[in-house]
Structures
1.
Amino acid sequence: MGNERVKSSRRKFLKSAATIAGSAIGFNLLGSSRYLVFAAEPKEEALPWYGIVIDIEKCIGCGKCAKSCKIENDVPQEPFFFRTWVEQYTVENNGSVDIISPNGGIDGFEQQVPDEEVFKSFFVPKMCNHCSKSPCTQVCPVGATFESPEGITLIDEKYCIGCRYCVQACPYGCRFIHPVKKVANKCTLCYHRLKKGLDPVCMEVCPTGARMYGNLRDKDSKIVKFLKEHTTQVLRPNLNTGSKLYYNALSMEVR
Amino acid sequence: MDPNIQHLYEMLSKAQGYIFPNELDLQWGILIVVYPYITGLVAGAFILASLERVFNVRVLKPTYHIALLTALSFLLVATLPLISHLSQPQRAYEIMITPHSSSAMAIFGFVYLWYLMVVLLLEIWFDYRESMVVWSKEKKGIMKWVYRILTLGLSDISHETVKWDKKLGYLITIIGIPSAFILHGYVGFIFGSIKANPWWSTPLMPIIFLFSAMVSGIALVMFIYMAISYFRKQPVELKVLDTIGRYLFFILILDFTLEGLDQIHRIYESDESFEIIKLLVSGKLYLTLFISQGLIGTIIPLITLAFLQFYKRAISFRKTLYLVVSILVLIGVYSMRWNVVIGGQLFSKSFSGFTSFKLGLIGLDGTLMAAFWLLLPVGILTFLLWLLPPWKMVKEKE
Amino acid sequence: MNFFIPPQLKRLALAFTIFISAFLIIRHFLVPETFGQYGFYRGASLGEIGQSPVKFAGQKACFECHQDIEDLKQMDVHSEIRCETCHGPGQKHSENGDTTLLENPVSRESCGMCHSKNVAKKKEAIFQINLKEHYIDKKCIDCHNHHQPWVMKE
């Protein structure tokens, strides 16, 4: 008789434990996370979907974009951390390609190869491509980097654990670990300025208008008109990153 | 000047060709070489133990418990190099509460938990339960309570219940084999799925990681079996070593074939990344790839094991050969992890230049730290062998 | 239907139930509130990133006080260049008018950042000059008006 009572109370305990556990599981599943593999589709129609155009024919390698970006965004001045930088490609007559980016182009460029030996030469500004299928967002293990509803890839500095997987996954080399904040860092298209109706700093200070940005959804925007009238390319199209940084006059030497 | 910044200026002077400005410093250092090495040892040791259980390879019985406890010792340490390499380690728990389902790294937390709790701990528990109940009754004082807690307070060792222990243990081992594959395979996938890095991006990567893991785990158990027998002053059973050696031989052949296939395919297709990879392999990775991983870690062990398979020799000589082979293989697989992790970061994603890697001695990402993470499991294993001695277990009534 | 569950399984089921429930309860308190609001990230971070201070004021802020200079600039080739390109971050200056907070680029090197001859610069993009030969003992602004470069001084 005593055993019967003990067995049934144990059974009751197990049942209630299972109920608690089951509801805790259910509660959590319904609760928080909707997860995304890619943010390929822009979400709300009312928001802009940002794209960038860089016109290589207009870039003169003055480096003001790289310099101003560091000032605006609290990036250390040392030559190891860049949200944006400028490269110079020099294709010589013998076919060899030299690429340089001294201090990211901030101090300007000195011509290294005499004119007669140069087949062609040009400057290529680089920055975050704000990919719509960004590999960096795909690999972040905790959801610290993400694509905003406007299509800008951002980093949540309070949530990043510093695993550096995103830095490995970016094919364009545009991410780095901030030496002071010790979390991932990269170009944000000056999100904080866009919210105030200002232009990103690199676009603000570019003297030739080589850098443009705008709403890809707006048919009348400067950027959409430019895309219509020019032949543009993205970097690493074979990787299918959905890059929204379109280059005009991109030459085949550029990686 | 901040020593980190000073270090970066030195690296800048050593950069060759053109690298993207942010690529100067390597993101993943020696701790990320150590982590796949450790989980590989776990998976490999477990697979060897499963051979005995599931495929009834009776000859390996003396190594069964050693293999399981070795796997557990290394698994307990496995997360530590990862957490210590994060630049925000206090936020490491975020992987468990908001794991991003598209990220291979996020799976880590749950695969690790699953493997630790459901597979490894349970298998050891089912296997040792009867003995732990007996020990809890024999011992006095605090050890009595330790064993009682370990048995979860269950002291039933009737014949029926012990039969269930064996059945459930068998079931767990069966679940455990694919779980071990996932535990280490996902590490290979972490590298293999990075399309941005051509040295890493290949579908073969998880498989190569798995087979080299099995090789390293088997070699480790061989080594530890010999070491334990030496310390316990017990004779080493040669037929155990011969059987382990045979498995090592065949899986090493498979591993070598897979890695060779990866390289042959790369050389044949010769895509845009090939030129820089050729320079990498013949230059900065020459020593660690051809000499350490290839010659020392694969070719010499293969020849020795083939020799041992086909010729009988004097007993003491054979044991020494097995000892040397197991050490060489362990070095070789470590070099393989080095070549994958460090090698993949030495060349620029611009395919036009190289950076450099200097391994420091002290500091969180230094040699001493890595050595500590590798030696800590040995300490844990010693403790586990004292707590759960395989040779003092209740004998099976057959 | 009464089927036999071995005692080990019952004990393990209990242990696992406790563990999983504890995990889920702790998780509930640890996940940030706004997580998942817009996607798999902490929704509040959008606001936090948006709050960063601005260092470059943007052209419109300059026009509020310096429309006269802008009118001059519009009449010559520097018309499309914005003020802070040469004068540096202007937000603080636009708040209190302190001119020491702005850059005043008067050296040959500062003009040379854009105008020095380099084979990589397209002639259509910018007017280039060989600074090693052109009036090397003078500053550019000794002859050129900085906001209207082709309106020569003297």
2.
Amino acid sequence: MSFKTSYFYTVFWQRFRRNRFAMAGACIVIGLFLLSLLAPLITPCDPTTIDAYHVLLPPSATHWMGTDELGRDVLTRVIYGARISLKVGFVAVGIAITIGTVVGLLSGYYGGWVDAILMRVVDIMLCFPTFFLILAVIALLEPSIWYIMLIIGVTGWMGVARLVRAEVLSIKERDYITAARSIGASNSRIIFRHILPNAAAPVFVAATLGVAGAILTESALSFLGIGVQPPTPSWGNILTSGKDYLEFAWWLSLFPGVAILVTVLAYNLLGEGIRDALDPRLQR
Amino acid sequence: MLTYLIKRLLMLIPLLFGITLITFAVIHLAPGEPVDMQTAMNPKVSAEARQKMREFYGLDKPLHVQYVTWLGRMAHLDFGRSFAPDNRRVTDKIVERIPITLSLNIIALVLEFGLAIPIGILAAVRRDTLLDKGITVFVFLGFAIPTFWLALLLMYFFGVKLAWLPISGLHSLGSELLGPVAWFWDLAKHLILPVGIATFGSLAGLSRYMRSTMLEVIRQDYITTARAKGLSERVVIYRHALRNALLPVVTLLGFSLPGLIGGSVIFETIFAIPGMGQLFYTGVMSRDYPLVMGILVIGAFLTLIGNLLADICYSFADPRIRHGRA
């Protein structure tokens, strides 16, 4: 690592570390990662095995979060649900970021009619209420997890495209780009080697916030019955099936609800923390 | 100014075209036909009758012909008739829903701006104090909690347990017999939960934005100058800083427009509010193609017009936009 980049990360880390909210968010995000990776090692139960003799048990020493209407361990389902919900978040955001970055890079770098056409596409997409588009596509196709991730991604790239375009417009006027061009670097080399790394920071922030948004969108779709389909547990559909037992089995909806809440909160605080730590204007 | 206006109006044409194209594509992604939905459950419908129905709806023609026919009819604002049993015109169905969703969303938007702006300013002025941190957690909680869960919890608590608030619809049974004051009070009670929850959920975005623009403005030299002149902190913040911090917030108002007409599917489903969200949801679930296409196109079109008006207003305020460099 060159002196310049290592200095960048040192300063970033120093400023990020001071922000307690952001640090808490980062710890939760990492913890959730480990939890969903190690799910089978952590919990002895199976998330889909039905046990008719132990239905709707309140939280106890054997079932920390109780059992649901089919006798499944809620804790196990919440842990496995983390896998699905995070997967939805990451893949959807991955798609959105990829489309957005490519469109933003092309638009900002080439300008002219490429820019005009791509930005009009962005304008058109932004005219639709996003949730309506998602709803229409999922309901008309079928509510499979792949369609859900795909459509959340395909309807969520416009903000990233505008962000990247704005970054590129300012970066491409810098001296090091002129220098690269003067030694004969190709367009693709300039774009991917010199512009992209310098435009990456705000994209990373947008991605962090996007994961939170995608998890919420999946839970809203689940509520309407067209999210990830049971028996595969997602936080959205555990919460949705738990809502019918609100009055006499509070644990069914409380734990998945809190899981979504804490995760979305953590991703938001992390995203804000990264943004603040990257922003030179916020120096005190 | 005139050239700017003409340019913007001409720009509408490709955008409108794109809107119709995307809408058409979304609808025709789906496998199966609406005719299947209506007839599959009914064994009495013969293949012949089904074919007649397809012809009636124009579904037997190739896609591009369907698209052009649809475009042509839309040019005279004819969005066709709903596939639902009532067979009403799509435009009629939409027109009766728009005022409900629009007024609900405007109330929520006014509350959102009315609360989020002062909250954001307060957080910026008291930066890094306990108050700032409390506000941060509060607004993010509103964003992070799944709305339908919060809505159901509050509905259960205030509506069922305490029985303070009604839990569905906009009016109580027999409300038309009430006097105007009682009628209004009845409506207000129905709105508290949906509007309150919608506002709580939307505070985060705007108040965080307000906080960061305010922080940026406070660091400017002219604020230091104002303080150096010996002006009171009150005057510095509200006279000098606030005005400049508010300008970018106006742009955010423009971004709120698609949501205004769209309405929330979740709230309208939970609270049984007969708005656009609910209409769209039932339309999508029953594969009512003309209705779904009508809502998408009309919604996007109204948003386009709204954005245009916002930009024109903004260009009066900021001459840089009028003259090229957007």
